[in-house]
Protein backbone atom coordinates (compact mmCIF):
# COMPACT_ATOMS: atom_id res chain seq x y z
CA UNK A 1 0.00 0.00 0.00
CA UNK A 2 1.53 3.31 -1.10
CA UNK A 3 1.56 6.06 1.51
CA UNK A 4 0.81 9.50 0.01
CA UNK A 5 1.38 12.96 1.41
CA UNK A 6 -0.48 15.56 -0.67
CA UNK A 7 0.51 19.24 -0.56
CA UNK A 8 -2.08 21.85 -1.55
CA UNK A 9 -2.56 25.61 -1.68
CA UNK A 10 -6.25 25.79 -2.61
CA UNK A 11 -9.42 23.73 -2.78
CA UNK A 12 -7.75 20.36 -3.27
CA UNK A 13 -9.81 18.96 -6.16
CA UNK A 14 -7.03 16.55 -7.22
CA UNK A 15 -6.61 15.57 -3.56
CA UNK A 16 -10.33 14.85 -3.43
CA UNK A 17 -10.01 12.55 -6.44
CA UNK A 18 -7.30 10.55 -4.66
CA UNK A 19 -9.39 10.38 -1.48
CA UNK A 20 -12.41 9.14 -3.42
CA UNK A 21 -10.30 6.55 -5.26
CA UNK A 22 -8.91 5.29 -1.96
CA UNK A 23 -12.43 4.61 -0.67
CA UNK A 24 -12.20 1.49 -2.83
CA UNK A 25 -10.49 -1.13 -0.67
CA UNK A 26 -8.71 -2.42 -3.79
CA UNK A 27 -7.03 0.93 -4.53
CA UNK A 28 -3.37 0.38 -3.54
CA UNK A 29 -2.66 3.81 -2.03
CA UNK A 30 -3.81 5.91 0.91
CA UNK A 31 -3.37 9.59 1.71
CA UNK A 32 -1.73 9.62 5.15
CA UNK A 33 -1.38 13.41 5.53
CA UNK A 34 -2.35 16.65 3.81
CA UNK A 35 -0.08 19.68 3.99
CA UNK A 36 -0.45 23.28 2.86
CA UNK A 37 1.52 26.50 2.66
CA UNK A 38 -1.49 28.51 3.87
CA UNK A 39 -4.91 28.00 5.43
CA UNK A 40 -6.23 26.30 2.29
CA UNK A 41 -9.88 25.34 1.78
CA UNK A 42 -8.81 21.82 0.76
CA UNK A 43 -7.64 21.08 4.30
CA UNK A 44 -11.33 20.43 5.05
CA UNK A 45 -10.98 17.18 3.08
CA UNK A 46 -8.65 15.99 5.83
CA UNK A 47 -11.27 16.62 8.47
CA UNK A 48 -13.94 14.88 6.39
CA UNK A 49 -11.78 11.80 5.77
CA UNK A 50 -10.09 11.73 9.18
CA UNK A 51 -6.65 12.43 7.73
CA UNK A 52 -4.11 14.56 9.64
CA UNK A 53 -3.26 17.97 8.18
CA UNK A 54 -0.44 20.42 8.68
CA UNK A 55 0.28 23.97 7.55
CA UNK A 56 3.75 25.45 7.04
CA UNK A 57 3.00 29.11 6.22
CA UNK A 58 5.49 30.50 3.73
CA UNK A 59 5.41 33.97 5.27
CA UNK A 60 6.35 32.67 8.73
CA UNK A 61 9.97 32.05 7.70
CA UNK A 62 12.69 34.55 6.81
CA UNK A 63 13.90 32.54 3.80
CA UNK A 64 12.49 30.06 1.32
CA UNK A 65 15.17 27.59 2.42
CA UNK A 66 14.08 27.74 6.07
CA UNK A 67 10.46 27.32 5.04
CA UNK A 68 11.46 24.35 2.89
CA UNK A 69 13.39 22.74 5.73
CA UNK A 70 10.32 22.89 7.98
CA UNK A 71 8.05 21.62 5.20
CA UNK A 72 10.42 18.70 4.60
CA UNK A 73 10.50 17.92 8.34
CA UNK A 74 6.69 17.82 8.40
CA UNK A 75 6.52 15.60 5.29
CA UNK A 76 9.14 13.17 6.59
CA UNK A 77 7.09 12.47 9.73
CA UNK A 78 4.62 10.55 7.58
CA UNK A 79 7.05 8.09 5.95
CA UNK A 80 5.47 8.73 2.54
CA UNK A 81 6.19 6.65 -0.56
CA UNK A 82 5.01 9.53 -2.76
CA UNK A 83 4.63 13.26 -2.19
CA UNK A 84 2.17 14.89 -4.55
CA UNK A 85 1.99 18.62 -5.23
CA UNK A 86 -1.66 19.15 -6.03
CA UNK A 87 -2.28 22.79 -6.79
CA UNK A 88 0.65 23.63 -4.51
CA UNK A 89 1.63 27.10 -5.68
CA UNK A 90 5.13 27.38 -4.22
CA UNK A 91 8.45 26.44 -5.75
CA UNK A 92 10.23 24.01 -3.48
CA UNK A 93 13.84 24.80 -2.56
CA UNK A 94 16.42 22.52 -4.26
CA UNK A 95 17.23 20.77 -0.96
CA UNK A 96 13.60 19.67 -0.62
CA UNK A 97 13.41 18.48 -4.24
CA UNK A 98 16.63 16.46 -3.93
CA UNK A 99 15.45 14.92 -0.64
CA UNK A 100 12.15 13.70 -2.12
CA UNK A 101 12.81 13.12 -5.83
CA UNK A 102 12.01 11.10 -7.82
CA UNK A 103 9.02 10.30 -5.59
CA UNK A 104 7.77 13.88 -5.86
CA UNK A 105 4.98 14.45 -8.38
CA UNK A 106 3.17 17.53 -9.64
CA UNK A 107 0.12 18.04 -11.82
CA UNK A 108 0.06 20.83 -14.40
CA UNK A 109 -2.83 22.18 -16.52
CA UNK A 110 -1.02 22.04 -19.87
CA UNK A 111 0.57 19.53 -22.21
CA UNK A 112 4.15 20.08 -21.12
CA UNK A 113 6.58 21.34 -22.25
CA UNK A 114 3.93 23.67 -23.67
CA UNK A 115 2.82 26.49 -21.32
CA UNK A 116 4.82 25.90 -18.13
CA UNK A 117 4.38 28.18 -15.12
CA UNK A 118 1.55 29.47 -13.02
CA UNK A 119 -0.72 30.55 -15.91
CA UNK A 120 -0.73 27.55 -18.25
CA UNK A 121 -4.44 27.79 -19.08
CA UNK A 122 -4.37 31.54 -19.67
CA UNK A 123 -1.22 31.20 -21.77
CA UNK A 124 -2.79 28.50 -23.94
CA UNK A 125 -5.83 30.68 -24.62
CA UNK A 126 -3.63 33.70 -25.38
CA UNK A 127 -1.60 31.62 -27.86
CA UNK A 128 -4.79 30.67 -29.73
CA UNK A 129 -3.98 26.95 -29.81
CA UNK A 130 -6.66 24.40 -30.70
CA UNK A 131 -5.66 22.04 -27.91
CA UNK A 132 -3.78 22.06 -24.63
CA UNK A 133 -3.76 19.33 -22.02
CA UNK A 134 -2.87 18.06 -18.59
CA UNK A 135 0.39 16.54 -17.34
CA UNK A 136 1.76 14.67 -14.34
CA UNK A 137 5.50 15.15 -13.90
CA UNK A 138 8.33 14.35 -11.54
CA UNK A 139 9.36 17.59 -9.85
CA UNK A 140 12.86 18.87 -10.55
CA UNK A 141 14.53 22.21 -9.80
CA UNK A 142 13.01 23.92 -12.85
CA UNK A 143 9.52 25.25 -13.43
CA UNK A 144 7.37 22.40 -14.74
CA UNK A 145 10.45 20.94 -16.43
CA UNK A 146 10.77 17.51 -14.80
CA UNK A 147 10.31 14.14 -16.50
CA UNK A 148 6.78 13.59 -17.80
CA UNK A 149 5.00 10.63 -16.20
CA UNK A 150 1.67 10.93 -18.05
CA UNK A 151 -0.23 13.47 -20.11
CA UNK A 152 -3.35 13.83 -22.19
CA UNK A 153 -4.60 16.38 -24.69
CA UNK A 154 -7.65 18.56 -24.00
CA UNK A 155 -9.31 20.49 -26.85
CA UNK A 156 -9.78 24.23 -26.65
CA UNK A 157 -13.40 24.86 -27.65
CA UNK A 158 -14.77 27.97 -29.37
CA UNK A 159 -15.79 30.55 -26.77
CA UNK A 160 -13.75 28.92 -23.99
CA UNK A 161 -13.00 31.15 -21.03
CA UNK A 162 -10.04 30.49 -18.78
CA UNK A 163 -12.38 29.15 -16.11
CA UNK A 164 -14.33 26.86 -18.45
CA UNK A 165 -11.19 25.42 -20.04
CA UNK A 166 -9.50 24.97 -16.66
CA UNK A 167 -12.52 23.06 -15.34
CA UNK A 168 -12.25 20.59 -18.25
CA UNK A 169 -8.49 20.25 -17.76
CA UNK A 170 -8.96 19.58 -14.03
CA UNK A 171 -11.17 16.58 -14.85
CA UNK A 172 -8.36 15.12 -16.97
CA UNK A 173 -5.72 16.00 -14.34
CA UNK A 174 -7.67 14.06 -11.70
CA UNK A 175 -8.00 10.98 -13.93
CA UNK A 176 -4.30 11.10 -14.84
CA UNK A 177 -3.17 11.51 -11.24
CA UNK A 178 -5.27 8.61 -9.95
CA UNK A 179 -4.04 6.40 -12.83
CA UNK A 180 -0.39 7.36 -12.24
CA UNK A 181 -0.65 6.49 -8.53
CA UNK A 182 -2.27 3.17 -9.47
CA UNK A 183 0.44 2.45 -12.07
CA UNK A 184 3.23 3.26 -9.59
CA UNK A 185 1.63 1.06 -6.92
CA UNK A 186 1.28 -1.81 -9.40
CA UNK A 187 4.89 -1.38 -10.66
CA UNK A 188 3.78 -0.35 -14.16
CA UNK A 189 5.69 2.92 -13.73
CA UNK A 190 9.09 3.13 -12.06
CA UNK A 191 9.90 6.76 -11.36
CA UNK A 192 13.63 5.97 -11.19
CA UNK A 193 13.52 5.02 -14.89
CA UNK A 194 12.16 8.36 -16.10
UniProtKB/TrEMBL annotation:
PROSITE patterns, alphabetized: GART
Keywords associated with the record: Purine biosynthesis, Transferase
EC top class named in words: transferase
Active site: 108
Domain of life: Bacteria
Domain Formyl transferase N-terminal: 3-181
Annotated InterPro entries: Formyl_transf_N (IPR002376), Formyl_transf_N_sf (IPR036477), GART (IPR004607), GART_AS (IPR001555)
GO cellular component entries: cytosol
EC number(s) stated in the UniProt entry for this protein: 2.1.2.2
Family (UniProt): Belongs to the GART family.
HAMAP family recorded: PurN
Record's protein name: Phosphoribosylglycinamide formyltransferase
Amino acid sequence: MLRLVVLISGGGSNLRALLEASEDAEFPARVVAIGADRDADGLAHGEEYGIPTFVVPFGAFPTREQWGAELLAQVRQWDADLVILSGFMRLLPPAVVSALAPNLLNTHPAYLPEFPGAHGVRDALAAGVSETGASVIVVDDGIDSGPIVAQRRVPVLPGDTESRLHDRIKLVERELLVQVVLDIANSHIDLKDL
